[in-house]
Amino acid sequence: MKRNIIQTRDGSTTIHIEEWDECYHSRFGAIQEAQHVFIKNGLSLFENNSVSILEIGFGTGLNVLVTFLESQKTNQIIDYVGVEAYPVSVEEASMMNYVAELNAENERSIFEKMHECHWEEKINLNDTFSLTKRKQFFADIDDVEKFDLIYFDAFGFDVQPELWSTEIFEKMFDALKPKGILVTYAARTVIKRSMIEVGFTVEKLKGAPGKREMFRARKG
Question: Taking the model in full, what pTM does it have?
């Protein structure tokens, strides 16, 4: 499928898939969405604690970058696992303007390392942040009570409804530790039903700019 680099409304870039007319991040603002959904409504709940994170849809690396930058401010120890079935190329990643837009030029080499490092291999980005990228279909995830927090950032329900199924959310529920949290930009009723069916308690929150609502789900 043909992929193009486009600019979103907050000035940050994303990848657009022509065949689906679907983007890796919100057209209203890629960085704004990542910070609102995954940092403000996810990572911030674990302040002063070590956190193990599972990202569903590693994609452009934006979510891991904003998490890394935030962890440097808060001194959190992060063990980050990103799952992606169809990795973005290093060349595509190099065209993303996140480092500049986040005023993080000192961390450019870290962002490059996130994409250049080998899959299935745990690396330390610094003394407090480890990253493992897994090339894997979401349906093949079989972790049990391993993660405190899940960033659920799959492509939208309209183009890949199978990624928002009860079967997938059951895997997410199993992967979380007791009292673990899942956050996602989505807020469809059918998605909420699937989450509740597997045991999540779901709350609806204000969405990122351009989106009215989002979900946060808790295990126990």
Answer: 0.97
